[in-house]
Design brief:
Elements lengths: L8 H19 L4 H8 L3 H8 L7 H11 L3 H4 L19 E3 L8 E5 L10 E8 L14 E15 L2 E6 L3 E5 L4 E18 L5
Antiparallel strand pairs: 1-2, 2-3, 3-7, 4-5, 4-6, 4-7
């Protein structure tokens, strides 16, 4: 029989099972000899299983799992689970950016940073606290979703205006000119998510 290499999938599984079984046994404060006796296998066999020195049968795995009070299916829950990667931006730590045409009393905090060369969404936390500010209109590709967290305003999209109060949401085509028309109650905080569809 040819020797297994480090990239062999069977060896990867053996190491995973070894670590899971050892971790479960130790978390219960059990010794190898205790589990081996309950499972009806030798102490040496269980030691080899826990050190990934042997590929064991499902029947033996079932016996060990039963001795540990562990369902066999549970043993495989985390095997080959995708690593995953999420970007956390803590409160108040979004990147402050300047949008064209905005002046005093109007800030944008970008809530995620591009993890690669392309982007298809941009979420902003927008704060407005100067009721006298005159806003330009904006236009951009894709779709925009806004959700008003605090305050009250009139928002224009094309030829229509919308009265937004805290808790209200608005979704619209970004290419049609849009923007705040009147700030009725400040401070205003809103979440703005721009979805560009295809990556830019």
């Amino acid at each position: 029989m040819p020797a297994m290499t480090n990239s062999d999938p069977n060896l990867k599984l053996d190491r995973y099972l070894a670590a899971k079984l050892r971790q479960e046994r130790q978390s219960q404060g059990l010794k190898i000899i205790d589990v081996a006796q309950l499972a009806g296998i030798s102490q040496g066999m269980l030691s080899r299983i826990e050190n990934a020195q042997v590929s064991t049968s499902l029947e033996t795995l079932h016996k060990v799992c039963k001795a540990l009070g562990l369902h066999l299916s549970t043993l495989f829950n985390d095997f080959e689970r995708p690593e995953g990667s999420a970007q956390l931006v803590k409160r108040g730590q979004g990147l402050e950016v300047v949008k064209r045409g905005t002046e005093r009393g109007h800030t944008y905090h970008l809530l995620c940073y591009h993890l690669g060369p392309h982007r298809n969404i941009e979420p902003f936390l927008v704060t407005m606290d100067d009721a006298s500010e005159v806003f330009p209109t904006f236009a951009h590709p894709g779709t925009e979703f806004i959700h008003l967290l605090e305050g009250e305003l009139i928002y224009r999209h094309g030829n229509h205006t919308y009265h937004l109060q805290a808790g209200d949401s608005l979704t619209f085509e970004g290419e049609i000119p849009h923007g705040p028309e009147e700030l009725r109650q400040v401070p205003i905080r809103l979440l703005s998510v721009m979805n560009y569809g295809e990556p830019l």
